[in-house]
Amino acid sequence: MISKILVPSDGSKTAKKAAGYAIDLAKQLKSSIIVLSVIDQRSLIAQTVPASETARRTIEPIEDYLREAAEGYAGEIKKLCDKSSVASEISIKMGHPVEEIVKEAKRSKAGLIVMGSHGRSALSATVLGSVSYGVIHNDKSIPVLIVRG
Which one of 11, 14, 76, 140 has the minimum C-beta count within 10 Å? Predict the structure, then answer.
């Protein structure tokens, strides 16, 4: 029985589509959802966000900006869960997305990971890196449902 479903989200349309599948499945299985957003540490190389790009119109460290964005799109999925009466929680992590998704799935004892894929070719995924490809091949003990964009 799947009691917890992990739903990693990067805020993309594909991630939202995957969340919809996860919520429908959670309702049927009477499962809960863990919405995970990972702030990729590779994007935190001593940068700042220009004032014109922030809500407060101030110079804001990139880490704070990315955390706010991650909380925002994870919050959108939590609202969808609440609307569908599916128990959910949010987890925001910092690190390499593939590693953090697998760690969170193990930590939370998720029975399934439901995530979106942008549908890159194998060559493109190898060169550019594909999070869904990495999760599938990183840990074979947790089933992964991939939703195409």
Answer: 140
